[in-house]
Design a protein that fits this description.
Blueprint lengths: L1 E9 L4 H16 L5 E6 L7 E8 L2 H12 L2 H10 L3 E10 L3
Helix pairs in contact: 1-3
Length: about 100
């Protein structure tokens, strides 16, 4: 099992807007096999940090789900609304230890 964390640094004051888009994102991603575990925001560290954390059986499942979603029109429309809120981002892929 793997955990994928997409970590975004939002633009100043855009956390509320990003949170508002999350429900829409969850509905879209479920159609393409993403099983989002949780969304996280900062309490310490850099302000306006927003994390989307998802689990997958393996890298193959992650790659397939990502390719299916990123090629979809509904995801592209959502992404077009999310990108203007983001300053930067990175991805971490981790093994889940049982």
């Amino acid at each position: 099992m793997i955990v994928v964390r997409n970590i975004f640094q939002l633009k100043f004051g855009k956390a509320k807007d990003a949170k508002a888009l999350i429900k829409e994102n969850q509905d879209i991603m479920k159609k393409y096999g993403h099983t989002t575990s949780r969304f996280l925001t900062d309490l310490t560290g850099e302000f306006y940090t927003f994390v989307m954390e998802t689990t997958y059986e393996n890298l193959t499942a992650f790659e397939k789900s990502s390719q299916d979603a990123m090629g979809a029109n509904d995801f592209a429309q959502w992404y077009g609304k999310f990108v203007p809120l983001v300053e930067s981002g990175r991805r971490e892929i981790l093994n889940l230890v049982d």
